[in-house]
Amino acid sequence: MSTVAVEPSPAAPREPTAPAALLRLDRATRVHGSGPTAVRALDAVSLEVAPGELVAVMGPSGSGKSTLLNLAGCLDTATDGAVVVGGVDVASLDARGRAALRRRHVGFVFQDFNLVPALTAAENVSLPRELDGLGARAARREALDALETVGLADLADRFPDDMSGGQRQRVAIARALVGPRRLLLADEPTGALDSVSGESVMRVLRDRVDAGAAGLLVTHDARHAAWADRTVFLKDGRLVDSTGRPAQADDLLAAAPRTPQEGER
Ligand SMILES: Nc1ncnc2c1ncn2[C@@H]1O[C@H](COP(=O)(O)OP(=O)(O)O)[C@@H](O)[C@H]1O
Ligand SMILES: [Mg+2]
Known about the structure:
Layout: E1 23-32, E2 39-49, E3 54-58, H1 65-72, E4 80-85, E5 88-89, H2 95-105, E6 106-109, H3 121-131, H4 136-149, H5 165-177, E7 183-187, H6 195-210, E8 214-218, H7 222-225, E9 230-235, E10 238-243, H8 249-255
Parallel strand pairs: 3-8, 3-9, 6-7, 7-8
Antiparallel strand pairs: 1-2, 1-4, 4-5, 9-10
Residues 32, 39, 41, 59, 61-67 line the site of adenosine-5'-diphosphate.
């Protein structure tokens, strides 16, 4: 696979035609605070996710999974190392530039959904498209399609407070899927769902990735990680292991808590 320059030269094409990584972390590190109380939430993690690739992230609570997604989604910046989204080094941008990069490339499913309570399901889903400049009617049509994809067409005009946790989660997924965004980041998107809904959400993500998006999915569920092309494991902010093939549930359960043996990395 070709690599993307960390410092894009003026001559470099902005949208590479080869399937270069949509997301690249190069020894990305995020330290919170300083001095003796500093927390190394992410420690020199290197990772690429190309179009057509779904990567699962597993690891215990506090291992840095959300930090990794926040860096990838341009919601936070690395304190060391590089994060490159769509060929652009995130560190080269100010907050406004990061917001624009995020809006262009990133669909984000937050762990706690982040729906706007005063907006209906359809309004929540159409909001990013209206911010993109799409007209209200077209944005609503897209939102209804996305809600139908996640099985919520009937609840388009309901408010988040009048929905179950699983329904809210599916609204959040629909919101991440609208528009042309090709880097899909999902922080435990199946956490509040029963197993049938969880599988159908994985099917939606998998289809979108097969259609050319790149996906990074935090999950605790080995059955959902099995939908990914590979799985990476975090422990104490470090990438400790990864499977280079579609994982089987047994490998994941065996591999998740341990540190790699000599010669495995
Ligand atoms: N804003 C913050 N300030 C200080 N520490 C943080 C902050 N965000 C995360 N951390 C710490 O970084 C580590 C990784 O957190 P997180 O990425 O949320 O882990 P996970 O999503 O795997 O549970 C944890 O030790 C957490 O307490
Ligand atoms: Mg988390």
